[in-house]
Amino acid sequence: MTGNTHFFNSQSITGKPKQQETLSEEELDEFLTCLPKEKGWRTPNLFLFQGFWCQPKEIRAIISIQNHFIAQDTDVILATIPKSGTTWLKALTFAIVNRNNFNVNHNHPLLTHNPHELVPFLEYKLYADSNRLPDLSLVPSPRIVATHVPFGALPDSIKTSNCKIIYICRNPFDTFVSIWHYLCKIRPESLGPLPIEEAFDLYCRGVTGYGPYWDHMLSYWRETAPNKVLFLKYEEMKVDACNQLQKLGEFLGFPFTEEEEKEGVIEDILNLCSFQNMKDLEVNKKGKGAISNFENRDLFRKGEIGDWMNYFTPSMFERLSNVMDEKLEGSGITFTVS
Q1: Which residues does 307 contact at the CB level (< 8 Å), separation at least 6?
Q2: What is the distance of C-alpha 299 from the center of its chain?
Q3: Left, alpha or beta for 177 (phi > 0: left; psi -120 to 50: alpha)?
Q4: Which ranges carry the Sulfotransferase domain (predicted)?
């Protein structure tokens, strides 16, 4: 297991030569001219690719993933929309699966590594380099990886294998506020500021990274199955953490024993992975590069439920409520927003 951290730290230089066709810069530019586009949040444009909005570099990486990633039955895929609890889910999953390999209270990798280093994104880390493919044979089993793409865009090998998919969603009201704050921090100065009113209009029209959000949620919700897709809600994880962690451990095939429960192992993992603990760690205060060379500290803001109430006007509340009612009607997905 010690090779786990080494592998994720060396992916910028480790990989196999290209084996199949990959889009070059010129081919990607030509391909983009065929796609609908809208103003981007942190890039000049977002493009509608396979039914969802994303950036040019993401499109190239996703094509590479779809062409090359071969899932194993023991794989664990963490799927999220940006800013819906991704970092927390990565930390919890890594801690649960590896709890017999590392002491939660002593020299645990999560104390010295950002969760995104230990559980890499397919599109932002493993397949981000268009010139080489990662050597996934170096990753210890079970391989835990993450993605933001909707279910329909996952490689066929993930859909047809016995690997497990964990999806976490968050109240779209809070998700919008979190996305806007995060992207304002990393948005290039050359693009100018992104007023909340403008961002909100894009969001309600579904023009956000990997959105529309409601379509993203529904794509995984419809695939929920006992041994394939576990659908979690951020709010339920926050309010009922112990029971939700037990559910997560059971689904992963790493259930907590009665002895572990009595010894407080669940509480230890929750404390290790708590928002405040992770935010206060030195690696997350000063570290850089866990995701596309952005500052790790920008990944942690508040992590609260209901922060949207500090930003929404009555008209914003009405508009997004109407969108959610329309898009999620009859699905069974509901959120408490008052």
Answers
A1: 174, 177, 178
A2: 12
A3: alpha
A4: 73-332
Name the residue type at position 125: K
Amino acid at 195: P
Structure-token pair, residue 211? 């959105």
Residues of the chain short of pLDDT 70, as ranges, are 1-22, 287-303, 338
Cα(128)–Cα(249) distance, rounded to whole angstroms?
30
d(CA 256, CA 245): 9
Residue 207's H or E segment, with its range, is: none
Instruction: State the DSSP string of 178-199.
Output: HHHHHHHHHS-GGG----HHHH
For the purposes of burial, counting CB atoms within 10 Å of the CB of 132, is it exposed (0-12), middle (13-18) or buried (19 or more)?
A: middle
Beta-ladder partners of 47: 37, 54
Residues forming a β-bridge with 169: 233
Q: Identify the pLDDT of residue 70.
A: 96
**What pLDDT score does 20 carry?**
39
Residue with tokens 């996703």: 62
Amino acid (one-letter) located at 324: M
| Tokens, residue 84 | 């819906």
SS3 call for 318: helix
Strand partners, 133: 16
Q: Which residue has the tokens 């030509």?
A: 30
**CA angle in degrees (0–180, nearest 5) for 112-65-133:** 70
Element (H or E) spanning 299, and its range? none
Output the DSSP codes for 242-297.
HHHHHHHHHHHT-PPPHHHHHHTHHHHHHHHT-HHHHHHSHHHHH-B-SSTT-BGG
Whether the upstream peptide bond of residue 212 has omega within 30° of 0, thus cis, is: yes
For residue 278 the two structure tokens come to 């992770």
DSSP code of residue 122: I
Catalytic residues: 148
Residue type, 34: C
| Residue 212, burial from CB neighbour count under 10 angstroms (0-12, 13-18, 19+) | buried
At a CB cut-off of 8 Å and minimum separation 6, what does 46 contact?
37, 38, 39, 40, 53, 54, 55, 207, 208, 209
Tokens of 109: 């990798």
